[in-house]
Automatic annotation (TrEMBL):
Protein name: Parp12 protein
GO MF: NAD+ poly-ADP-ribosyltransferase activity; NAD+-protein mono-ADP-ribosyltransferase activity; zinc ion binding
Residues covered by region (Disordered): 1-40
Species classification: Eukaryota, Sar, Alveolata, Dinophyceae, Suessiales
Gene behind this protein: Parp12
Pfam families in the record: PARP (PF00644), zf-CCCH_4 (PF18044)
Keyword Cell inner membrane on entry: no
Sequence ranges assigned to domain PARP catalytic in this UniProt record: 63-304
Coiled-coil intervals, chain numbering: none
Low complexity: bias regions: 1-28
UniProt entry keywords in alphabetical sequence: Metal-binding, Zinc, Zinc-finger
ZnF segments: C3H1-type: 408-436
InterPro entries associated with the record: ARTD-AVP (IPR051712), Poly(ADP-ribose)pol_cat_dom (IPR012317), Znf-CCCH_4 (IPR041367), Znf_CCCH (IPR000571), Znf_CCCH_sf (IPR036855)
Cellular component terms (Gene Ontology): nucleus
Domain C3H1-type: from-to ranges: 408-436
């Protein structure tokens, strides 16, 4: 039944055919099945996670892989219904063969197709290890092989065809991909609840005993899928695409003792052979829910134009996929400030290093804000903006530089990049040649790939931008209070972290920058214009922009980065000590002017002091320190240079945009 043993499409008419006595030997199993799938982001982290508690993440599958699931769904579709499909109008009870409203040609009838909206891959080391352990135990218990599916399950062809998306299946234990229909939030909550499928049988009944019911056909799985009427996921359904190890099958149309037979060791699972083949397991470890597929139903009477729009429009989750509260309804309310663990912090440090800050800075902490109220405000603003812009804004801005920075660190580093000979492939290499990304280990790389760059709606000019602030201002913005500019009607954001940090003050060498999601909207040159949502204030020599955004409702302060500079801290200490130095007149009668007195103000201090005046908006009394240069017996050349520099600083303050 494995990929090597079948290439023939399953015949829909044979859906109820029982398994035959043909067997597959354990000797035919694929070597290396116990490792993580090659296409997983975590496939290379086994050694790093062995002593770190493993990994438990969800990632968006690339849009380029959506067709694999679309084809698998289409090939498994059967135009039949059963009494398990609820009446769409809520007026019909359960009837053998299904209610009239669900029949082909009914109102609204049976869905004629299902369209994939989004695909999420689940990577859990604990669940995968348990799954592999259970599979090995079944192999050991069935050394002579097991009864194979005949015909092969309907998902088999596509699973075997797209091995870059579906890992090879083990024919020796009837390993297959199968569907499990459910609600979107329930599917998402798998990540928070150890990925356990509900084994109570409350939604499916107990025709074959209490267990996890899956189907080879999307038509059957869809009977159990539910949307969220009136909610965010109204019209959106979910199906889990699971790896299932079935082992020895109990093929039957009805068996109330099926679960007991499996527990007794007579079988490993049940294959129900009625209108659809239903696959039932009684141990959660026999199932690995690898993908969550979100989709929409299409009925025969649906306007083709509307269906076409739905296909083209990217679907966005209500809550970011990487959030701890991904499965929580916003109406339930939540607020958490979550400090990124080691791998996430390492990735953020590389992002900071990539900015090549002067002076260089070390990441002290990186905190992610999960606030349902602020996010709800952001989502509502996004929906209103999308409705206002509609399809008129096809003139996208070029790719946001911060998004470029993020994406540059999401590609696996080339292992030859830093070798003496370098990479022979050069620019054609499919791996990254980013010098800062080369510092990332596999765990940090996987952590970075969880960041939500694929959730941005460029049609609305949504992107990540830096917001510089003090620690007090960081608290304000985390509560939704976005500080307005002193002279312009809006808030300034930056694509350059270096420029952003120049616009804020620090303490003890520490500065704060918030990485915000910003819904820029429609660009313009006059922010007082009602049709303008943002304007570009300035573009630096590297092309990075400073923008002014009018409405703070379109801002979500997602990551707060606290950054430390030893150089800044030393300068601050030096300035504090200088504040205690007496005036030039007082110094005349003190030891400070004595030849015996050491000079506490070195050339290094002078350079650092001047740099901090240039790079921050903390403006000290320049004349006071010009006088102090003389008081501290500094060389005339220093004093002349200082006077010229300080004069230039005073003259250039208004034209530089500093306030």
């Amino acid at each position: 039944m494995g990929c090597a043993s079948s290439s023939t499409a399953a015949d829909p008419k044979a859906a109820s055919a029982p398994a035959t006595e043909s067997t597959t030997s354990a000797a035919t199993r694929n070597p290396g099945d116990d490792g993580y799938p090659e296409y997983w982001y975590h496939n290379k982290t086994a050694d790093q996670t062995a002593n770190a508690g493993g990994f438990d993440d969800m990632f968006y599958a690339p849009d380029s892989e959506h067709h694999c699931f679309q084809e698998m769904i289409e090939e498994s579709y059967v135009p039949k219904t059963t009494q398990d499909r609820p009446c769409p109008k809520g007026t019909c009870g359960k009837k053998p063969g299904g209610c009239p409203c669900n029949q082909p040609g009914g109102d609204p009838g049976l869905p004629v197709s299902f369209h994939v909206q989004r695909v999420i891959r689940v990577e859990s080391s604990e669940l995968w290890d348990r799954y592999q352990k259970k599979k090995r135990s079944i192999i050991e218990a069935r050394p002579g092989g097991v009864e194979a599916f005949d015909p092969p399950v309907k998902t088999n062809n596509k699973a075997c065809e797209y091995t870059g998306t579906f890992a090879p299946l083990d024919a020796s234990v009837n390993e297959v991909y199968a569907f499990h229909g459910t609600q979107v939030r329930f599917a998402l909550s798998i990540a928070e609840n150890a990925f356990r499928i509900d084994l109570a049988g409350s939604s499916t009944g107990t025709l074959y005993g209490r267990g996890a019911y899956l189907g080879e056909s999307i038509s059957k799985a869809d009977e159990y899928a539910k949307d969220e009427p009136g909610g965010y996921y109204d019209g959106v359904f979910a199906v889990l695409v699971c790896r299932v190890v079935m082992g020895k099958l109990n093929s039957t149309s009805f068996d109330s003792k099926a679960a007991e037979k499996v527990k007794a060791g007579q079988f490993d699972s049940t294959c129900g052979t009625r209108v659809f083949r239903e696959l039932v397991i009684y141990d959660a470890d026999q199932c690995y829910p690898e993908y969550v597929v979100l989709y929409k139903r299409k009925y025969a009477k649906d306007p083709e134009e509307e269906v076409s729009k739905t296909r083209k429009r990217r679907f966005f989750m209500q809550v970011p996929l990487h959030w701890r509260n991904v499965a929580t309804d916003l109406a339930a309310g939540f607020r958490e400030e979550i400090e990124l663990p080691g791998p996430g912090t390492s990735w953020m440090q590389c992002l900071v290093n990539q900015a090549q800050l002067q002076p260089s800075r070390t990441l002290v902490s990186a905190i992610r804000l999960e606030d349902s109220q602020l996010w709800q405000r952001y989502v509502q603003f996004k929906a209103a903006l999308r409705s206002r812009i509609a399809d008129q804004s096809e003139d996208h801005l070029r790719l946001n530089f911060v998004e470029k920075d993020l994406r540059a660190l999401m590609k696996r580093p080339c292992k030859f990049f830093r070798t003496p000979r370098g990479c022979k492939s050069g620019d054609k290499c499919r791996f990254s040649h980013n010098e800062f990304g080369a510092d990332l280990d596999d765990l940090s790389l996987a952590a970075g790939r969880r960041l939500p760059v694929d959730e941005l709606d460029r049609r609305l000019h949504e992107g990540f931008l830096w917001y510089p602030c003090t620690e007090a201002e960081a608290i304000d913005i985390s509560q939704g209070n976005v500080k307005k500019d002193e002279t312009l009607p809006g808030t300034r954001f930056y694509e350059s972290l270096q420029t952003a940090l120049k616009r804020t003050t620090g303490k003890d060498g520490v500065k704060v920058a918030v990485l915000c999601r910003v819904m820029c909207g429609l660009p313009g040159v006059d922010v007082t214009d009602d049709d303008t949502d943002f304007m570009i204030i300035e573009t630096d020599e590297s092309g990075r922009r400073e923008v002014l955004v009018k409405d703070g409702s379109g801002v979500y302060p997602e990551y707060r980065l606290t950054l430390h500079s030893s150089e800044d801290e030393e300068t601050e200490k030096m300035i504090d000590s200088m504040d205690k130095v007496p005036t030039g007149a007082e110094c005349a009668s003190t030891m400070m002017l004595s030849k015996r007195a050491p000079n506490p103000f070195t050339e290094t201090h002078a350079t650092i002091f001047y740099n901090i005046l240039q790079d921050t908006v903390v403006y000290y009394n320049v004349r006071k320190y010009s006088t102090m240069y003389s008081a501290l017996r500094l060389p005339r050349s220093w004093h002349g240079a200082w006077s010229a520099q300080s004069h230039g600083l005073r003259q250039g303050r208004s034209s530089s945009g500093y306030r």
